Amino acid sequence: MAITAAMVKDLREMTGAGMMDCKKALNETNGNMDEAVEFLRKNGQAKAEKKASRVAAEGVVNVAVDGDTKAAIVEVNSETDFVAKNEKFQNYVAEVAKQVLTTEATDVDAFMEEKWQGDAAKTVKDALVEQVAVIGENLKIRRFEKVSADNGCVVPYIHGGGRIGVLVVAETAVVNDTVKEALKNLAMQIAALNPKYVSDSEVSADYIAHEKEILMAQINNDPKESQKPEKVKEGMIQGRIKKELKEICLVDQVYVKAEDGKQTVEKYLEQVSKEVGATVTIKKFVRFETGEGIEKKQEDFAAEVAAQL
């Protein structure tokens, strides 16, 4: 397969690796973009996490709640930041979130065919098309999720005017202001540090095996580290995996408001549980970041204004 300059440019933007490294990776993988990313990771020239965490589209994340036990979160995309900050658009997204709270749909396609709560003569899709006509941009209901807490509560958090939205589901026999404040603190931590799991018990064996493969390839591609005995290499990998799990598992992270800078989220929850006289356990969290994983065409500010005009 012929490797084009555009392919090299795309891979470079995705991984942050050098131009020649990207070209080599594409040649080695016959132009397969996903395999090229893996190739660069194994050679220590890129990290997939950087690609996944980049925000690359505009829009808003919003939440809707039903008491303390039910909540919904939705992401609706727009083409520009101008529209994302528009009050009419934000009000529309709030209405979508309210409908998600009551929907029986399990995916966006089914949701789009439902009757619109604001006007039973329309579907959700019809209402979206109307908004596109009024606002003048292409809009998309990208994703949603509903959560409930049968034996506890749900706490929502919106950051940056809808740039990031978080729902935290906790199991607890006591639901009071102290518990809710603690859960909001953790929702803010989730927004800021973007953990992937509640605890390491959720991490699959396949994920661990894959990360070990990447780390071993990085070690073997390092002239100094590759000379070390296999037992030492295994020890290095175990240490790095342990460190990574502390970063991606919420309860193992250092609690960001810890006065000593050492208290983990797990210890913080134990402290809160003791204070309220009931065990507070995080069962689940959902974190949506606007444009997560979507590539956005690069435009300067002047061009964006011109496009609006």
TrEMBL record:
InterPro entries: EF-Ts_dimer_sf (IPR036402), Transl_elong_EFTs/EF1B (IPR001816), Transl_elong_EFTs/EF1B_dimer (IPR014039), Transl_elong_Ts_CS (IPR018101), UBA-like_sf (IPR009060). Residues 80-83 are annotated as: Involved in Mg(2+) ion dislocation from EF-Tu. It is found in: Cytoplasm. The keyword Metal-binding does not apply. Residues 71-292 form the Translation elongation factor EFTs/EF1B dimerisation domain. Keywords: Cytoplasm, Elongation factor, Protein biosynthesis. Pfam families: EF_TS. One of its GO terms (molecular function) is translation elongation factor activity. Its main location: cytoplasm. Belongs to the EF-Ts family. Associates with the EF-Tu.GDP complex and induces the exchange of GDP to GTP. It remains bound to the aminoacyl-tRNA.EF-Tu.GTP complex up to the GTP hydrolysis stage on the ribosome. NCBIfam families: tsf. This is Elongation factor Ts. The gene is tsf.
